[in-house]
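In response to the reviewer comment on reproducibility (Comment 2.3), we provide here a single inverse folding case reported in full, input and output, so that an independent group could reproduce the run without further information from us. The structure tokens appear first.
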């Protein structure tokens, strides 16, 4: 009898969670004042509170939560296996329903705290930019512009040493403060930037940084090469501000980093965008891509080589599986290009440079 009551309790919880998820999706789909209430009132409030409270803690609370969840998941699987082996079918049903309820609850909180931004009409247009439909010639012009900027910034950088991540975080926040003089929508306060507790292990997944949607902390993988960290930091801040699609976060990260007084940020931004643009150009015309690449400074090529060698040591099936899972995650959240959506930033860049 007690097990039956527990099963009914889980079923009730599942129904409530499903209704909550449907209600939130209805709000996102309807648009209008209800959606504006979520995006411009509720999210601003909850993200500000979370960053203000958790931003003062030097380590990532979100990473601790993830670690606890992994332990809970292992214990849950062991209990499921125990019930299965000993034929405790009612207990097995209860555990299964409890797992479903937990997943639905987590997904509801994900949507409520941040995930709804995937359903939002791209906010980059609010800054005065449009995605340009581009030709191969447009891609070539953009790549040519970026290779010149990358070469310039690399020359300005040398022999400046790499700084600690704490300095990088502080400079990134200052870059956003400066950007608000042109784009007030990019106001970023309070600050909540953290080095990931799992930085070394993230390299096996090919992850350079991520936003924790439950705590609104921006995690940066500080185990990646230092010249990649400035742009990653600006990219994750863009996610915190509600720019969920990867191409949007790339663009916001770029326009804040490329205008920085710190050459490390300018170089990191132009370096990343050059690689994205060359990738897109190479898919259309390999000869043109090679022409641009041949114009890259030898020091820039050495950084690309260093990046490739760095990631090569972490290659394996885990990296492949994580790429497939993340690709499906993006597609499930209305990014039809999946992982390739990162490269779609080139359309925004052409609007920025008016090519």
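Designed residues, in position order:
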């Amino acid at each position: 009898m007690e097990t039956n009551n527990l099963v009914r309790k889980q079923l009730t919880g599942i129904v409530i969670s499903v209704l909550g998820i449907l209600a939130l999706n209805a709000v996102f789909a309807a648009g209008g004042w209800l959606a504006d209430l979520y995006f411009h009132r509720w999210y601003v409030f909850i993200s500000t509170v979370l960053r203000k409270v958790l931003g003062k803690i030097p380590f990532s609370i979100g990473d601790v939560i993830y670690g606890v969840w992994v332990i809970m998941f292992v214990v849950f699987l062991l209990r499921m296996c125990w019930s299965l082996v000993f034929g405790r079918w009612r207990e097995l049903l209860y555990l299964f329903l409890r797992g479903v309820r937990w997943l639905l609850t987590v997904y509801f909180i994900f949507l409520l705290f941040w995930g709804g931004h995937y359903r939002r009409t791209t906010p980059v247009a609010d800054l005065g930019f449009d995605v340009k439909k581009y030709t191969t010639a447009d891609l070539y012009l953009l790549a040519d512009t970026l290779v010149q900027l990358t070469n310039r910034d690399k020359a300005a950088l040398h022999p400046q040493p790499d700084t600690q991540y704490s300095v990088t975080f502080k400079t990134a926040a200052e870059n956003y403060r400066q950007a608000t003089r042109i784009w007030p929508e990019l106001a970023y306060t309070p600050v909540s930037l953290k080095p990931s507790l799992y930085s070394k292990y993230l390299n096996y997944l090919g992850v350079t940084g991520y936003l924790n949607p439950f705590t609104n902390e921006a995690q940066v993988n500080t185990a990646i090469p230092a010249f990649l960290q400035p742009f990653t930091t600006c990219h994750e801040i863009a996610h915190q501000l509600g720019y969920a699609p990867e191409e949007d976060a790339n663009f916001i990260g770029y326009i804040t980093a490329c205008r920085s007084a710190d050459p490390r940020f300018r170089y990191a931004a132009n370096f990343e965008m050059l690689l994205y643009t060359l990738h897109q150009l190479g898919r259309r015309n390999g000869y043109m891509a090679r022409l641009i690449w041949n114009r890259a400074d030898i020091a820039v090529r050495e950084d690309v080589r260093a990046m490739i060698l760095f990631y090569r040591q972490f290659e394996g099936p885990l990296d492949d599986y994580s790429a497939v899972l993340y690709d499906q995650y993006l597609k499930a959240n209305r990014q039809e290009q999946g992982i390739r959506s990162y490269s779609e930033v080139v359309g925004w860049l052409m609007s920025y440079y008016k090519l």
